[in-house]
Amino acid sequence: MIFDGNGNIFGTTKSGGRFGQGTAFELSPVGDGSWKEQVLHSFGASGDGIVPYVGLVLNSAGNLFGVTNRGGTYDTGVAFELSPTVGAGWTETIIHNFGKGEDGQYPVGGLAIDQSGSLYGTAEAGGAHGIGLAFELSPVDGGWKETILHQFASPDGGVPTDTLTFDSSGHLFGTTTSYGRYSKGTVFELSPTGAGTWKLTVLYDFGSHSEDGYSPFSGVTLSSTGTIYGTTTVGGKYGLGTIFQLSPNAGEAWNQTVLYDFSGYWFGRSDGAYPYGKLTLDPSDNLYGTTVSGGSSDGGLVFDIATR
């Protein structure tokens, strides 16, 4: 979820709403400690996208952008814009239908936005090799133009389900859930070449040893010093996922450290298991995240971990 400048929260649900296919919503603070919800859009009308898995991004004009995993012209997902209209709620515009030709299909992760208003994301399928791609959507002459930044081809990973993350130099970082050297996913960097193209570099291949994590579902989190943090949904000492750190190493391969192995409900520790969400880093370099199961009642938990 994201905040605007007034403290309102915006997000999505992948089901529910008027058509049962998901919503975009706003939560506004009332002033007495409570919050008021407003449904901005119900997905699922004819031609609309359905099943938005992740949240939204906000541009400088106050418009919201996101993707859906299904629906649209080819039933392989859409990118959409929600624009506020004074006294008339919010209006949805489909800015891209995924799935034509060698386009991406079924985007799962959210969008990243740059200062010019261009949007960046991944699709978990489609592309020239059928295992996903990274894309850019740029506003052009009142419409939107898609540019394919990279088509995954197995050795460099595949099936990206993450939200891309910018660093301060305009490079993009992300993960793939599968393929790569050991067929267990990768961490990658996309760098602009200056000629309108982007170069992908694999920073780490998961699965290099028996207790390594693998299959990262969410994107990565960057520190101010360039250290990368993330989670893997499975693998590690107990097979229930890990928290990992990647540190740059002066032009050489990045150093990976497993910061934590989740042990779950079954090993007597009431620990979490299977972390799917992206980590949040606070100013003191503490990481916060969630797991989908484990904990005292095996229903998942919220955790924090100190990195220093």
Topology:
Blueprint (H helix, E strand, L loop, with lengths): L1 E2 L5 E5 L9 E7 L5 E8 L6 E2 L6 E2 L5 E5 L1 E2 L6 E7 L5 E8 L6 E2 L6 E2 L5 E5 L1 E2 L6 E8 L2 E9 L13 E2 L5 E5 L9 E7 L5 E8 L7 E2 L6 E2 L5 E5 L1 E2 L6 E8 L2 E10 L10 E2 L6 E2 L4 E6 L1 E2 L6 E6 L2
Antiparallel strand pairs: 1-2, 2-3, 3-4, 5-8, 6-7, 7-9, 9-10, 11-14, 12-13, 13-15, 15-16, 17-18, 18-19, 19-20, 21-24, 22-23, 23-25, 25-26, 27-30, 28-29, 29-31
Tell me what the structure shows:
The protein has 308 residues and is mainly β. The protein folds into 2 domains: 1-115, no CATH class; 152-308, 6 Propeller (Neuraminidase), CATH 2.120.10. It is built from no helices and 31 strands. The chain has strands at 2-3, 9-13, 23-29, 35-42, 49-50, 57-58, 64-68, 70-71, 78-84, 90-97, 104-105, 112-113, 119-123, 125-126, 133-140, 143-151, 165-166, 172-176, 186-192, 198-205, 213-214, 221-222, 228-232, 234-235, 242-249, 252-261, 272-273, 280-281, 286-291, 293-294, 301-306. The strands form 10 sheets. A 4-stranded antiparallel sheet has the order 1-2-3-4, with no helix packed on it.
Descriptive keywords:
308 residues, mainly beta, Neuraminidase, 2 domains, four-stranded antiparallel β-sheet, 31 strands
